[in-house]
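Next up, sample data:
>
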Amino acid sequence: MPRTVWSGAISFGLVTVPIHVVSAREDHSVRFHQVHLEDMSRVRVRKVCEIEDREVPNAEIGKGYQLTKERIIPVLDEELREMPLPTAKAIEIEAFVPLESIDPIQIGDGYYLQPDGQVAAKPYKLLRKALERSSRVAIAKYAWSGRERLGLLRVRDNVIVLHAMHWADEIRDPAELKPDDVKLTKEEIAEAEHLIDRLTRDDLEGEEFTDRYTQAVEALLEAKREHREPPAVEEPKAPGKVVDLMAALQESVNKAKASRGEDATVHEMPKKTAAATKTAKKAPAKKTAARKTSSSKTTAAKKTAKKASTPKKRSA
């Protein structure tokens, strides 16, 4: 059972839902300690006062705001706790909006909200049902770690999920990062859409969606524990420089087909324009007509030669 990281309530108008907040994610990363390589002893970070040049215990450590290079303003934890935070003990729902209206870049970590006891079961289910039937998400404010935050509430597998959100002014404007305007052909766009179709799937289940780096680290540690050579790891290929965009797209489509067991040699080329199609259809007709004319002339010449070589009968 995951541990509770915060306790409070959801405030939904005049309805209050007592809840526990637990993390919705698990970190499977392999973690390392810093060690002294000569004797493999742990290397730890110590908090040292720069003026007194001595290690300082946590009881003597507080917060300070750097006002200028020479001046730091001390801020006590008690002062921060006394700041007016109406959302200090409640997740207050402010509005309901369509999920599509939220830019995903604003959405952060997710947490499961667990009803706190039987008394919370009914209002919890009421809010969950209302969210499901409205096809909307709730936008709320709450306070963690001494600051007010923005959050998003949605339903996942009959459980209400809280997503931390960034405030709008925390998102940088990407305008200066846009590339220069370039021209694309209709064929290049069609081939890119073809590649998207080939890579489209209904879920993220599959071997390609596994953490291969963590698996390689675990295999390395297992080999070291057993005093044997670690397994060989294939060197990743550096991405090549794209010279022919259309050729790169077509090769990508063929690889996507091959990965799904399809015939990679069969490739649906972009549709030609109407003018090109008409021209292509007329060309064989001209050749056929030319052949017929040539054949007719040859036959006529043979008949003329035969008449000329046959002697005429004299009349009696």
About this structure: The CA atoms of residues 105 and 174 lie 12 Å apart.
